[in-house]
Amino acid sequence: MAQRKSFLLRLDPVTHEALQRWADADLRSLNAQIEFLLRRSLQQTGRLKPADEE
What we know:
Order of helices and strands: HH
Radius of gyration: 13 Å
Oligomer: single chain
Strand content: under 5%
Structural class: mainly alpha
Largest sheet: none
Helix content: 40-55%
Distance between the termini: 13 Å
């Protein structure tokens, strides 16, 4: 598995709370939810190959 990189992400409280509720509903951590959403967006816009194509 590739090494993961960390960085600070600042969110306004309303966005943070909405993402946390979504993560809870999907049984993910907030970090995993944000990473999932970013990866899905990148794949949908053709900026990242889906994992099964690599």
